[in-house]
Amino acid sequence: MRNARRLRAGLRGWGGVGAMATVCVLALIFALVLTRAGSPAVKAPKAAGHTVTDAVGADAECTDPEKQTLSPSGADGDTIDAIKNRPDGKRKLIVGIDQNSYRWGYRDPNGGGGAQLEGFDIDLAHRIAEDILGDRDAVQFKAIPTDQRIPAIKDGRVDMVVRTMTINCERLRDVAFSAPYFRTGQQVLAPRESSVTGYDKTLADRKICTAAGSTAYAKLEEDKAAGRLPKSADIRTTVPNQLDCLVRLQLGEVDAVVTDGALAASQAAQDPTVELKGDAFTTEYYGVAMEKNAKDLLRRVNQILVDFREDTEDGWQKAYETWLSATLGSDPAKSRPPAPQYLRTD
Q1: For the segment 157-194, what is each residue's pLDDT rounded down to a tens digit?
Q2: pTM to 2 decimals?
Q3: Mind spelling out the 3-state secondary structure of the chain?
Q4: Bigger pLDDT: 116 vs 6
Q5: What spatial distance separates the first Cα and last Cα of the chain, rounded to whole Å?
Q6: Would you tell me the crossing angle of helices 261-270 and 17-37 to the nearest 10 degrees?
């Protein structure tokens, strides 16, 4: 199957804990440098036709955001052609990623000097590049903070974002999402000795950290206004990158962190003094985000995700076992997204 997939790609294309914590802090600084110093991307022309959000319509109609995407297709279009026709030396897929989320997108301090990005999201980005350009290494990674994921797409700095990005209705106003490639939910991370027991009344009078622009912050804000979160819970601490919250927690500047359980589990693996508290209190799905009008690219990514899920040799299951089984458990059933459903087929 792997050889067959490579052949299709060719045809479609052209032709210890302390050390880890220290490296993570340094990676945060390096990420900001990369964000500002990265070379500008070549903007792909917008494809004609209705956007995904045109079909969704008003916010009230967006009840299942993970289904607001287009059916799979292996055909090229204006956006993919623009990527393929970039000048020599720049003929790469430009992907916004994280470089400090352990097991998702990170630089392993024990792996060859930490030069290579690794993780579940990184494997998926390589897979997309291989399918579109015929070379899994034909990808330029751009480290972007959590709150810059959508601006990076809208400004044309990246072709797509593969960065543990939750699909939701608000974001669908600005970007298009692929079908889901991972299922998770919000959870609480706190010190092991803390009296915090989960997303409940024990968060009263506690300082909670979230990433700016994250679904975690939106949920906290909504629940506090609705009385589902104690009014005395302090949610004012937000940071550009989610890993900054772990640093704040380690320094004692906050009492708890709220983030995706998949990310929180990886952070708990980095620091044994913290742990997940309680169960996930939402259900969310990660998707690949891209420009709203890039319909051909959206359909192509959805086709790649179909192949990725079905590939028993080098697909979703293999990526889970390699990167996430150590932190999320050997059974991937809770993390595997349901069979994809698409908004329309035209």
Answers
A1: 999 999 999 999 999 999 999 999 999 999 999 999 99
A2: 0.83
A3: CHHHHHHHHHHHCCCCHHHHHHHHHHHHHHHHHHHHHCCCCCCCCCCCCCCHHHHHCCHHHCCCHHHCCECCCCCCCHHHHHHHCCCCCCCCEEEEECCEECCCEEECCCCHHHCCEECHHHHHHHHHHHHHHCCCCCEEEEECCHHHHHHHHHCCCCCEECCCCECCCCHHHCEEECCCCEEECEEEEEECCCCCCCCCHHHCCCEEEEECCCHHHHHHHHHHHHCCCCCCCEEEEEECCCHHHHHHHHCCCCCEEEEEHHHHHHHHHHCCCEEEECCCCCCEEECCEEECCCHHHHHHHHHHHHHHHHCCCCCHHHHHHHHCHHHHCCCCCCCCCCCCCCCECC
A4: 116
A5: 29
A6: 130
Residue type, 73: S
